[in-house]
Amino acid sequence: MAASAPSQVYSAPGRRLSLTERLRLGLNNGRISATLILLPPALILFTLFVMLPLGESFYYSFFNWNGYGVPTDFVGLQNYQRIADHSVFHVAVGNTVKIVAVSLFLQMPLALLLALLIYRKTPTNAFFRLVFFLPYILAEVAAGLIWSFVFDGNYGVSASLAQSLGTEPFFILADRDWAFVAVMTVIVWKYFGFHMMIYIAALQGVPEDLVEAARIEGAKRPQIVRYVLVPQIKPAIIVSAFFAIIGALQVFDLIIPLTNGGPSNQTHTIVTYLYTFGLTRLNIGFGSAVGVILFIVAITVAVFYQRFFMKRGQS
Amino acid sequence: MAEVRLQNVNKSFGNVTVIPDLNLTVPDGSFTVLVGPSGCGKSTLLRTIAGLEMPTSGQVLIGGEDVTLQEPSNRGISMVFQSYALYPHMTVEQNIDFGLRLAKIPAAERKERVAEAARILALQDHLDRRPGQLSGGQRQRVAIGRSIVRHPKVFLFDEPLSNLDAALRTQMRVELAQLHQSIDATMIYVTHDQVEAMTLADQIVVMNAGRIEQVGPPMELYEAPQTEFVASFIGSPKMNLLPGSAIARDDVRTVGIRPEHILVDRTGGDWAARTQVVETLGADTIAYMVADGLGDVTVRLPGHVRLKAGEQLYLTPERQNLHLFGQDGRRMKEAA
């Protein structure tokens, strides 16, 4: 009986495999079939719902188009020029930057502090974990409506508070200076639980021996946090910051029920700006241009962050 | 250096009592090894001495001072963990230096102490590396170095060699013994490996189910085990524990005889036995046999003796080396 051909391809050390050999190896170990079976669904969905709309948006952004019929009124870069000159867009960008700052410097430290308090596995901690995580589970629109009621100076919780204190009711969401502070408060309240959970998962993975060794060495609790726990969960902090930044760029559905971008367009973010001045006013070309700008900002941040922070965190 | 004394120490976790009521004195400057099977409470006891566990009742005294309620860092102890517990994000130097930095020791003195520890443990060339770049033995040395630099009164070791391979374990055992000789500090060492206990200890504490079975120098435990448990635990291969009928004594529940104290003859002897397995170790030959009416018997013979599996032999125990245990499992005073 003739010997059958070997099912595996082996190469001498240091020799590069030829294309045919690599293909044979891929077929034999199932990598090619796995790729052929698993890749198309994801690739088709990504192309249909991300790449094609993105390409279309980029195309529409050069037209003055209301969304009906075929875009014919080519305006070049005029939409981008209008955006650059629009004061509300400047406010929206400023607000988005504020949300990023609050997420990084208030929300994340708060989440870390709470995570440090309740990361150990006890029934009491499990209860508090659930309580702190609840806002994140709540739908954004529902959370926005709840807080709009809380802030309502006529009938809301703040009205009752003002009444009990004997002061004039304060309509914070109608105040140009304070409305966005209220919005940011709601954002912190809504999302800190998510970051807290990331930190809790990471803290639970830190070997208890390290903490005990530090205690024996004379470290007090703040020193254990600074020198042992935080360095140990650094990769989780970097990922959490990434989510915070990308999330901040996309804030939309909390603001619509809370302020709808008002008063006087003072609480817009880039996405609510896109929605208000692009979609609701049927300026699809203009809205597409905002979308393209947002995409470029998001992709730049993501690539930069991946390259400089996440790789460093892993190393 | 300091004596460590445990007075009526009890430790319970909820309804489970791990250490019922324990009294122990670890002499100043001694190398005391706590040995016992897994779950016997030896690590809990060590952690209680360290202050990582609070005793449910009782007192812990170090150098005559009651430290029961004191923080671990105020007890003058240092501890080497089974996992080494090195900080992976710090270099070797930073790991060794960590405690000194926290204690706000001046930089010059810190540098001097770290250099001294690195010299003792041959770590000079690795100070800039991180733990992940070191071998198991080197990590172990860093963990010991971290202990040394703080100049503690008492060193605690929690199964520090259990993650090392056999060859490295032997090497580190010698290094630990040398370290004890050179710094002459009180050391308390937990292990479940009785070979480590025998080779390292001045004093061995054999524990079983949270209780101390026997305390004494290694050879005392080897030559005169006070209970059946100690007899079975100390020594490798284990002591043969046979029914009293082996020597025709009704008052003896168990008779113990070490494998090296049994004579083997092909023509005649007290017990007829058949060889099951023979291990040739070079210096020794270990024969696992089944004696008629008595059960398994292990015999240690000189390395040049050649036995075959299935061979029929006769065994005769050395009368002067028999260990007799009464109905309560304790050693009987009278000789065999």
TrEMBL record, chain A:
GO aspect biological process, one term: transmembrane transport
> What cellular component terms from Gene Ontology apply here?
plasma membrane
| Native source organism of the sequence | Halovulum marinum
Q: Where, per UniProt, does this protein localize?
A: Cell membrane
Q: Where are the transmembrane segments?
A: 32-54, 99-119, 126-150, 170-192, 284-305
Q: What's the protein called, per UniProt?
A: ABC transporter permease subunit
Alphabetized, the UniProt keywords read: Cell membrane, Membrane, Transmembrane, Transmembrane helix, Transport
Which stretches make up the ABC transmembrane type-1 domain? 93-305
Query: In what way does this protein cross or attach to the membrane?
Result: Multi-pass membrane protein
Per the record, a Pfam family? Answer: BPD_transp_1
Record family assignment: Belongs to the binding-protein-dependent transport system permease family.
From TrEMBL, chain B:
Has the keyword Transport been applied to this entry?
yes
Q: Which family does it belong to?
A: Belongs to the ABC transporter superfamily.
GO CC entries: ATP-binding cassette (ABC) transporter complex, substrate-binding subunit-containing; maltose transport complex
- One of the record's GO molecular function terms: ABC-type maltose transporter activity
Annotated ABC transporter domain residues? 4-234
Its domain of life?
Bacteria
InterPro entries xref list = AAA+_ATPase (IPR003593), ABC_transporter-like_ATP-bd (IPR003439), ABC_transporter-like_CS (IPR017871), ABC_transpr_MalK-like (IPR015855), ABC_transpr_MalK/UgpC-like (IPR047641), Mo/tungstate-bd_C_term_dom (IPR008995), NA-bd_OB-fold (IPR012340), P-loop_NTPase (IPR027417)
Keyword list (alphabetical) reads: ATP-binding, Nucleotide-binding, Transport
**Name by which UniProt lists this protein:** sn-glycerol-3-phosphate ABC transporter ATP-binding protein UgpC
| PROSITE patterns attached to this UniProt entry | ABC_TRANSPORTER_1, ABC_TRANSPORTER_2
Listed PANTHER family? MALTODEXTRIN IMPORT ATP-BINDING PROTEIN MSMX, MALTOSE_MALTODEXTRIN IMPORT ATP-BINDING PROTEIN MALK
